[in-house]
Amino acid sequence: MGAAGGQWAAGGSKDMSLQDIIKRRQQADFVGREERLIEFRTNLGLPVVDRRFLFNIHGDAGVGKTFLMNQLRRIAEQHGAFCGYIDESSYGVPEALASLAADLAQGGARLTRFERRYAAYRRRRHELDADPDTPAGLSETFTKGALQVGLHSAKMLPILGVAAEVVDVAAAAEQIDRLRVFVGQKFRNHDDAQLVLSPAEALTPVFLEDLCTLAKRKTVALFFDTYERTEWFLDTWLLDLFAARYGDLPADLVITVAGRSALDGNHWTSYHSIIADVPLTSFTDAEGRTFLARQNVTGDRVVEVILQLSGRLPLLVAMLAEGRPDNPADVGDRTGDAVERFLKWEPDGRRRATALAGALPRRLNEDVLAAACDADDDRSELFEWLRTQPFLAETAGVWQYHDVVRMPMLRLQRNRSPQRWRKQHRRLVEYYRTERAALGLSDDNGWLDTTWQDYHLEETYHALCADSAAALPDALNHAVFALSDSTPTARRWVDTMVAAGRDSDSRLVQTWGERLTRILPDEHSDEIAFLTALIDYAELEPAAYEKALQLRGDEHRLSGQFDQALADFERALELDQESPKALAGRGEVYRLMNRYDHALADFTRAIELDPQYVWAIASRAYLHWRMGRHEVALADFTRAINLNPGYHWSITLRGDMYRRLGRSERTLALAQRTGGFDVNDAFTILGRGEVFWLMGRYEEALSEFNRIIEREPNFSRAISNRAETYFLMGRYDHAVIDLDRAIELDPGSSFPQYLRGVVLVAQGHADRGYLDIQEAVVLAQREMRDEPAEVLHSCHLAIYRAALGDWAEARELLLDFLGQSQTPWFATHALFDLRELSQLPGVSQQRVQELIRLVEQHGVAED
Questions:
Q1: Are 83 and 77 in contact (CB under 8 A)?
Q2: Are residues 614 and 640 in contact, defined by beta-carbon separation less than 8 angstroms?
Q3: Nearest residue to 798 via CA among 811, 784, 779
Q4: Taking Cα atoms as reference points, which of 161, 160, 137, 136 lies closest to residue 527?
């Protein structure tokens, strides 16, 4: 690494621009890394098949990683490459991709498709977060990756980041499925739902498509700085890129990663052949002397003292050389004294004060500098001067001090004048508070806005630095609301507390920050432990305390720990007995615990307190349906839709209610005419096709299923439904083709396996067919074990047993199914399956009719 040469004193050529000065210093003073520059430049000139595609810069703070990365970027730009850069300011893959795209755009390389898709993601997330009818706990579930679900899969992947011990997996899976349905029906198409449910998975392929387009024109160079702070989410993503999980990478691509440590060999071993290892250390003695000579520091004793006191750390060598000392006594001590010597050599008092004040904010621009040093008259001149200094670097459009220099500058100011320290930080608090207020957002809406969040973070940082004891309670209260927004937001908040504690030398703040950091280390964070620490030890104000209890109640509920969830909501209600959200939250827990009367009372009270609370109304409707009160459920679903015509969850379930009550014609009309409902949505098309199917209108059902499969060729449920339709129409060859595909896509699902067996028997391949039906029995038993709350599994197993001639067991399973279902639609479903079974060649029609009569005695057939 090198540093800026020249003196701090004013002067120089009047004909040179600031950019000329910076570029000249960067190129002239780059010492000890020439071989790395040559290696990178040579690599760009090689045929792509011979290149290294990943440069891994690593070394301690102050050795010049960022400086080297900037030089490599300059070389890439000279080569004509499109360049994108990110640092630790990103807290997740979507934000990192957006930052790379923005930087590429600065160089004229627009990722047009990605930009549109990312803008859609931000809009959809905002709509979801701002929707008062979003089910409780949904946002937190998304941020933990709990809903990695697409239309092509009918199953829910495991919930991540929750307690290992789950009390009721089936009930938890049921509510997660309700949340998935809410998202699937809130947005108008599958792509938007996937964008919200799995943003990294949805955005990365589009990002790669645009990169490939760029790479057809020029080399693409991507730079990942301060990797030690982003590795927790970027490392797996990068590995997935190289493993082609999201599609092919362009061959004309070079990635540079810079961090404290080398990439983990346990993860990256298989990519050794494409990685160029770039370890950076302090200057060698010869490199240090060469650098000093270029600064006109040549006295033997002065050189020896500088090299000794700096430890040959490039940044400190540069700082100690900046004043061109000619006397060893003028050099000073390592780090702290080096900063003081460095400042002493600047004769202009305003500049000395500016250099110190500029270290107080974590990110710098001209306005922030003016707030820090109260120098409005000269702020442009002083800021332009400050930008030429060796310890200030611009990354992604933001100016920052190097930590090796900033830390001693902060310590110097804190120790020299505590009163001035507090005064300057309070000015910065006021600056950021004013900027935040100027956005005109309430706190509730502000948490949904990234700019508002950024101002709030910096305001809190400076408040903690100014008076840690007074500001800590507010910081802990706001940590609750940060988590309510998302886990990455909470992590940013905690990182800010750690930084403020360190920079202000407040052990109390730093201890709190470190404690919370240990709880939120990566994407598998434990939100329950995070909230517990705040609830039990933070002495939260009532609003934050109640919010924390509600959030923890949601987390306990989502992880199936219903007793703990109940306790949290009851504690929240002790604070506010008339909190609609706490009542509805407790009601949902009661529902999951099958305590329906208690659930109904809570939902009803929540609705009395807030008659516009659509989620509570729809939840009560769902509860009525579970209790068999179908007409009352319909009334509540209708009320929810009248309050919010775009509330797709209610629309879908109301349609389902009509279907399950046997009113197929009403369901079809609803699916086709309901205002605010997208008739082209895949879920809608699927439901409409199933209605045609149950009504025996097979050609129309086939048309609907074809529409879905054209859009979603891997949607196994639609493929299976089409196969069943082909079977009912006697088109066995087409049915087998579809069933082979459905089984390939979802090999754990029993019904496609059973149906293929039935079709094969119908085609005269009885041996193969009955083997399939036997396999379906095994799969159904596994489904019943894994998903005990899904009563249809016992219905299916009964049908499979009947197909194999096990009539007594089939009868017992069917009785068990009918005893659990308690709703007419389940009986209708069983009748439909039994009538299909009657088409199996060789099956006892008398036995099938006995089972049909059994169902009709216990349930209600279709109208």
A1: yes
A2: yes
A3: 811
A4: 161
pLDDT at position 823 is: 54
CA distance 180 to 234: 26
Which residue, 438, 441, 460, is CA-closest to 449?
441
CATH architecture of 748-863: Alpha Horseshoe (1.25)
> What's the confidence (pLDDT) of residue 8?
33
- Looking at 229-238, 244-253, 379-388, which range is the least confident one? 379-388
Give Rg (Cα) of the chain.
33
Tokens 């109904």 — which residue?
A: 600
Count the residues in the chain.
863
Is the pTM higher than 0.70? The answer reads no
Domain ranges, ordered by start, for the chain = 18-113+203-279, 283-416, 748-863
**Mind spelling out the 3-state secondary structure of 660-724?**
HCCCHHHHHHHHHHCCCCCCCCHHHHHHHHHHHHHCCCHHHHHHHHHHHHHHCCCCHHHHHHHHH
Quickly list H helices, 486-626: 487-504, 507-519, 527-537, 542-558, 562-575, 580-592, 596-609, 614-626
Neighbouring C-beta atoms of residue 780, cutoff 10 Å? 25
Give CA–CA dist 322/551, Å, rounded: 54
Pairing assessment for the beta strands 398-401 and 392-395 based on DSSP bridges: antiparallel
Q: Nearest CA to 308 among 332, 281, 342? A: 332
What number is the average pLDDT over the span 105-133?
Answer: 83
Quote the CA–CA distance of 726 and 739 in Å, as a whole number.
Answer: 10
Q: Tell how far CA 408 is from the center of its chain.
A: 36
The structure tokens listed for 101 are 């795209």
Phi/psi at 111 (5° precision): -95, 80
| Dihedral angle sign, alpha carbons of residues 840, 845, 847, 848 | positive
What DSSP element (H or E) covers 82? strand 82-86
pLDDT digits (tens, 9 = 90+) for 252-262: 999 999 998 89
User: Whose structure tokens read 């920079």?
Assistant: 503
In CATH terms, the fold of domain 18-113+203-279 is Rossmann fold (3.40.50)
Q: Among 400, 51, 50, 454, which Cα is nearest to 225's?
A: 400
Give the ranges where 254-365 is alpha helix by DSSP (H).
265-268, 285-294, 300-310, 314-321, 336-344, 349-357
Angle between helices 750-762 and 732-745 (to 10 degrees): 160
CA dihedral 767, 769, 770, 775 (to 10 degrees): 130
Q: Which residues pair with 83 in a beta bridge?
A: 221
Which of 649, 576, 577 minimizes the C-alpha distance to 616? 649
Q: Which residues, 6 or more positions from 793, have their beta carbon under 8 angstroms from its beta carbon?
A: 750, 780, 783, 784, 787
Tokens standing for residue 859: 């349930």
- Supply φ then ψ for residue 142, to 5 degrees: -60, -45
DSSP state string for 599-642:
HHHHHHHHHHH-TT-HHHHHHHHHHHHHTT-HHHHHHHHHHHHH
CA-based nearest residue to 833, from 758, 772, 774, 741: 758
The two three-digit tokens of residue 723, written as one number:
């196969």
